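**User:** Hello, beginner here. Are you able to go through the protein record under this note? It all follows right here:
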Amino acid sequence: MTTTTATLAALRSGQLKGITRLDLACGLQEFPREIFELSDTLEVLNLSGNMLSELPDDLSRLSKLRVIFCSDNRFTQLPEVLSSCVHLEMVGFKANTIQEVVPAAISPGLRWLILTDNQISALPDSIGNCARLQKLMLAGNQLAELPEAMRGCVGLELLRISANRFKALPEWLLQLPRLTWLAFGGNPVSAVPHAPRPAVARFHWGDLVLGEKLGEGASGVIHKAHWQPSPQEAGHPVAVKLFKGAVTSDGFPAEEMAACLAAGNHSHLIGVIGELTGHPAGSTGLVMPWVEPGFRSLAGPPNLATCTRDIYDDGQRFSLPLVLDLAKGLAAVGEHLHARGISHGDFYAHNVLYRPEGGCYLGDFGAASFYPSQASGSTNPFEALEVRAFGCLLGELLERIEPDHEALLPSLKALQLRCVAPVAASRPRFAELVAAIDSLLH
C-alpha cells in the first residue's frame, strides 16, 4: 500500500500499516500518537484542515518523513521540531496564524517551503543555509524585507512574495543565479502599471450561460460559456474565469485581473475581451475568447517529486518546426509583456496551450506583477528572470525533440544555454531571441 486518505479509526486499528502517505483531516486537536506506528514507511504526512497548534517533540521518530503538510490549522509558530527530521524536504504550513519563524525551525535540507497566508513579519537568517531550497512560498504575509543571508539560497528558482509590504526588492535577490519565477504583486513596489488600462467591454452575468469547467487554479475557476446579449443574436462561445476572491499562493486575484487587462492583445496571448458584472454573489471575473478545442496544454504542472519542473506525457515528442514555432511565439509574448512593464511570473509550459500543427497561447496571470518603470531599461533584471524561464521551457522541448534534426540543434542549444546563464545580465533580451529564432526559421 502506498497512499491513503484515512480515518482515525483505521489508523488506530492498524489497518494502515505499510503506507508511505497519510492524509488525515478529521478535526484533530492533538497529533495522533498512532502515526508513529508507520515510522518504517511513512514519507508524506498531510494533516491539513485540522485544529492542531503543535507537533510532538519526538517527530523525528518518523525517520523516513520527506514531506509534511499542516495547512489550515492553528499554528502560531513554525515548529522547531521540523529541523530534527533529517530527510524532510518539503514543509507546508499555509493559512495558519504563524507570526514567528524561529531560526531552529529551518532545516538546511529543505527544497520547498510553503508559508502562504500567515502573519509573518520577518524571516530568520538561518534560511540562508538552505542552499538546496528551490521553491519558497510567502505570499499573504507582513514581510517588508528579506534577510540578506538569503544570498546563500543559490538554488532558489521560484519565489512568491506577493501581498506583503515590500516597498523595494533587494538587488541581490534579482541576481540569484537560478531565480526564475518571481511573483511580487500586491506590494507597494508593484503598485502602478506602466501602460494605462485599456477600455474593455462589460459582460452581464445574465447574458452568459456557464458550461463545463475547463480548469481550476489557485485564483479561480475557468468555465466554457455561451454569451447571448439578446434573443435576436446568435450568441458566441467564450471562456469565463470566476475569481475566488482570497489571497492565493501567487497573490491577490485583483492583481491578476489588472495584469490581464494591462497586457492587452497579442497573437500568442490568451487575452481578455471583457469584465464580468452583475454576478449574484458579487464575484469578479473576466471573459476571454474561446480557444479552439484543437489546442491542448503543453505540459502538466510540477508535482512533489519534480518541485519546479513541469511534467510531460511519457513519450511526448516535438518536431523541430514545432519547437521553432513555439519558441518564436513565446519569445514574442515575453517581449510584448515586458514592453508594458509586466512580469508574468509563471512562464511555464503548463500555462501554454498549443496545437501539434503549430500555434500557441500563453495564459494564467495569477503570478503577474508590475515592476518599477526604472527597471525597464537596457538591463532589465525582471526580464532576465523571465528569459531564464523561457530558457528552461526551451530546454524541455529540446530534450524531447524528434530525431533527424541535428543540423540546427547546436544553434538552438547554444541559445538556450545563454538564456539560463547564471549571470542575469548576460542573458539575451526577448527581442534578441525573437530575431535569433526567426533567422533559424529562414
Observations:
- The mean pLDDT is 91.
